[in-house]
Design a protein that fits this description.
There is one protein chain. The protein has 114 residues and is mainly alpha-helical. The protein has two domains: 61 residues, MazG-like (Helix Hairpins, Orthogonal Bundle); 45 residues. The protein is built from five helices and no strands. The protein is elongated.
Length: 114
Protein backbone atom coordinates (compact mmCIF):
# COMPACT_ATOMS: atom_id res chain seq x y z
CA UNK A 1 0.00 0.00 0.00
CA UNK A 2 1.29 3.43 -0.85
CA UNK A 3 2.32 5.58 2.09
CA UNK A 4 -0.10 8.35 1.22
CA UNK A 5 -3.02 5.92 0.97
CA UNK A 6 -2.15 4.46 4.37
CA UNK A 7 -2.04 7.93 5.90
CA UNK A 8 -5.40 8.73 4.30
CA UNK A 9 -6.98 5.64 5.85
CA UNK A 10 -6.27 6.90 9.34
CA UNK A 11 -7.45 10.45 8.61
CA UNK A 12 -4.05 12.08 8.03
CA UNK A 13 -5.27 13.72 4.84
CA UNK A 14 -5.76 17.13 3.30
CA UNK A 15 -9.32 18.31 2.76
CA UNK A 16 -8.85 19.64 -0.77
CA UNK A 17 -6.34 19.99 -3.58
CA UNK A 18 -5.73 23.67 -2.80
CA UNK A 19 -4.25 22.68 0.56
CA UNK A 20 -2.04 20.12 -1.15
CA UNK A 21 -0.89 22.70 -3.70
CA UNK A 22 0.00 25.06 -0.85
CA UNK A 23 2.14 22.26 0.58
CA UNK A 24 3.85 21.81 -2.80
CA UNK A 25 4.72 25.52 -2.86
CA UNK A 26 5.99 25.32 0.73
CA UNK A 27 8.25 22.39 -0.17
CA UNK A 28 9.50 24.27 -3.23
CA UNK A 29 10.57 27.17 -1.02
CA UNK A 30 12.31 24.80 1.38
CA UNK A 31 14.20 23.25 -1.54
CA UNK A 32 15.29 26.69 -2.75
CA UNK A 33 16.53 27.53 0.76
CA UNK A 34 18.48 24.27 0.93
CA UNK A 35 20.04 24.99 -2.46
CA UNK A 36 21.04 28.46 -1.28
CA UNK A 37 22.64 26.92 1.82
CA UNK A 38 24.54 24.41 -0.31
CA UNK A 39 23.96 21.45 2.01
CA UNK A 40 23.77 18.50 -0.41
CA UNK A 41 22.03 16.18 2.07
CA UNK A 42 19.39 18.82 2.84
CA UNK A 43 18.94 19.54 -0.89
CA UNK A 44 18.27 15.86 -1.55
CA UNK A 45 15.91 15.63 1.41
CA UNK A 46 13.93 18.71 0.37
CA UNK A 47 13.84 17.54 -3.26
CA UNK A 48 12.31 14.28 -2.01
CA UNK A 49 9.76 16.23 0.02
CA UNK A 50 8.79 18.23 -3.06
CA UNK A 51 8.40 15.11 -5.21
CA UNK A 52 6.39 13.42 -2.46
CA UNK A 53 4.08 16.45 -2.28
CA UNK A 54 3.66 16.49 -6.05
CA UNK A 55 2.76 12.80 -6.05
CA UNK A 56 0.19 13.55 -3.37
CA UNK A 57 -1.19 16.41 -5.49
CA UNK A 58 -1.42 14.04 -8.46
CA UNK A 59 -3.53 11.73 -6.30
CA UNK A 60 -5.90 14.62 -5.58
CA UNK A 61 -6.19 15.19 -9.33
CA UNK A 62 -6.90 11.48 -9.88
CA UNK A 63 -3.64 11.13 -11.80
CA UNK A 64 -1.29 8.18 -11.59
CA UNK A 65 2.01 10.03 -11.03
CA UNK A 66 4.11 7.12 -12.30
CA UNK A 67 2.09 6.99 -15.52
CA UNK A 68 2.36 10.76 -15.92
CA UNK A 69 6.16 10.54 -15.69
CA UNK A 70 6.19 7.70 -18.22
CA UNK A 71 4.12 9.79 -20.65
CA UNK A 72 6.54 12.69 -20.19
CA UNK A 73 9.57 10.46 -20.75
CA UNK A 74 8.07 9.16 -24.00
CA UNK A 75 7.20 12.69 -25.13
CA UNK A 76 10.72 13.90 -24.31
CA UNK A 77 12.28 10.97 -26.18
CA UNK A 78 10.15 11.63 -29.24
CA UNK A 79 10.91 15.34 -29.23
CA UNK A 80 14.63 14.78 -28.68
CA UNK A 81 14.76 12.39 -31.64
CA UNK A 82 12.96 15.01 -33.73
CA UNK A 83 15.56 17.56 -32.63
CA UNK A 84 18.33 15.27 -33.82
CA UNK A 85 16.55 14.79 -37.16
CA UNK A 86 16.03 18.54 -37.66
CA UNK A 87 19.66 19.24 -36.80
CA UNK A 88 20.87 16.64 -39.30
CA UNK A 89 18.46 17.95 -41.96
CA UNK A 90 20.04 21.38 -41.54
CA UNK A 91 23.53 19.89 -41.89
CA UNK A 92 24.42 20.10 -38.22
CA UNK A 93 24.47 17.96 -35.10
CA UNK A 94 23.10 18.80 -31.69
CA UNK A 95 26.49 18.72 -29.98
CA UNK A 96 27.67 21.46 -32.35
CA UNK A 97 24.71 23.74 -31.58
CA UNK A 98 24.31 26.29 -28.83
CA UNK A 99 21.70 25.78 -26.15
CA UNK A 100 19.72 28.64 -27.69
CA UNK A 101 19.72 26.94 -31.10
CA UNK A 102 18.61 23.65 -29.58
CA UNK A 103 15.94 25.41 -27.54
CA UNK A 104 14.59 27.07 -30.69
CA UNK A 105 14.25 23.67 -32.37
CA UNK A 106 12.63 22.24 -29.23
CA UNK A 107 10.08 25.06 -29.14
CA UNK A 108 9.31 24.61 -32.83
CA UNK A 109 8.66 20.91 -32.24
CA UNK A 110 6.38 21.75 -29.30
CA UNK A 111 4.43 24.20 -31.47
CA UNK A 112 4.06 21.54 -34.17
CA UNK A 113 2.37 19.33 -31.53
CA UNK A 114 4.28 16.05 -31.61
Amino acid sequence: MRLQEKAKQVGFEWENKEQVWDKVKEEELELKEAIADGDQYKIEEEFGDLVFSLVNFARFLNIDAENAVEITNKKFTKRFMQMEEKAMASGSQLHAMTLQEMDAIWNQIKRDKD
